[in-house]
Amino acid sequence: MCAKFVRDTGGNYSAWSLDQLMKSEFFHQKIHEWGLLDVAERIESVRGEELVWDLAKLGIITSAWDKVIHRGIKPVVVFAHPNVLQSVPRAVGYYRMLAMVSQKSMSNLRLHVTRFEDGSKLPDSQRAWAIAHRLNPIISTLIQSDEILNPREFDLWRGMAAGAQADGSWRNLKGKKAETAVAGVILRRLREKNLLRTEATDSFELLDGRKMVFADEPDIAIYHHGQIQLAVEVKGGIDTAGILERVGAAIKSLSRAREENPNAVTILLAPAVSMTKRAVADLLINQETVNHWFTIDEFLEDEAKREQIFDLMQI
């Protein structure tokens, strides 16, 4: 019966597996993109004992404050203080997630926090006080509801809020899920290897003078002195019925890169479940245009294959 189940659901399982891989990778990217670990460490290093804690003005319930103090937990780790919000980038997101409040909910109160959470801006005094006064009562109530206060719960509270936010972002990606997952892995590689000189929204200058661009046709391109050196097409559709059309579109896109520079390296990434014998045959016929092809599954799961692709990209 188990063998029959595997046989009957093999294709569905492969599609499910890839979708979950991309989703997990996307969530992983968000942890780093939102700086969740970094901001927590910054807040933990703040000397909260030097701050003035006016509980009533800050919206902190006294019994919750006492519970935190008696447990030996630094209040600054739990309660939002305007000084911290104004001095630690992304701190607004830390306390908002601790209160398990969404960005949309904050916006409904006319407290738009996105720009404070992406690190591009710090709130002024008035907004910092307003944010603290909105979040602290909720955090206080959550603390009161726990008979025994366990500081590890704070990570779970923030994790639940971060997961909900990431899930909303994931659902909004629509047809760009594969491209986003692949781009995220590549960017993490560039940052881990310290290969970046400058970063913009979709354009990244590398230390060796090359420029990486995330766009359409191709999805990923590397240029040097204005000339394309490498082009990557990511086709994330999993239905076999449309694979020939997607392969054809990839061949057309990558052919333009080869026309611009006959020495350009071209790569296609597509789901394993959608790669039919006919699709592979088409790629073999057009290997001069599509130099290399891998499955997205390999890129996300197989370290050796991923390193092979990074070698082709010279990163």
Structure description:
- The protein has 315 residues and is α/β, with parallel strands linked by helices.
- The protein folds into two domains: 19-172, no CATH class; 177-313, 3-Layer(aba) Sandwich (Rossmann fold).
- 58% of the residues lie in helices and 11% in strands.
- The chain is built from 16 helices and seven strands.
- It has helices spanning 2-33, 36-44, 55-58, 62-70, 75-78, 82-87, 91-98, 103-108, 114-117, 125-145, 152-172, 177-192, 243-260, 277-285, 296-301, 303-313, and strands at 196-199, 203-206, 211-214, 220-224, 227-234, 265-270, 292-295.
- β1 and β2 form a beta hairpin.
Layout of secondary structure:
Blueprint: H1 2-33, H2 36-44, H3 55-58, H4 62-70, H5 75-78, H6 82-87, H7 91-98, H8 103-108, H9 114-117, H10 125-145, H11 152-172, H12 177-192, E1 196-199, E2 203-206, E3 211-214, E4 220-224, E5 227-234, H13 243-260, E6 265-270, H14 277-285, E7 292-295, H15 296-301, H16 303-313
Parallel strand pairs: 5-6, 6-7
Antiparallel strand pairs: 1-2, 2-3, 3-4, 4-5
Which features characterize this protein?
Rossmann fold, disordered N terminus, single chain, alpha/beta, 315 residues, seven-stranded mixed beta sheet
Distance between the termini: 46 Å
Largest sheet data:
7 strands, mixed
| Broad structural category | alpha/beta
**What is the domain total for the residues?**
2
Q: What helical percentage do the residues reach? A: 55-70%
Number of strands: 7
Unreliable residue stretches: 1-9
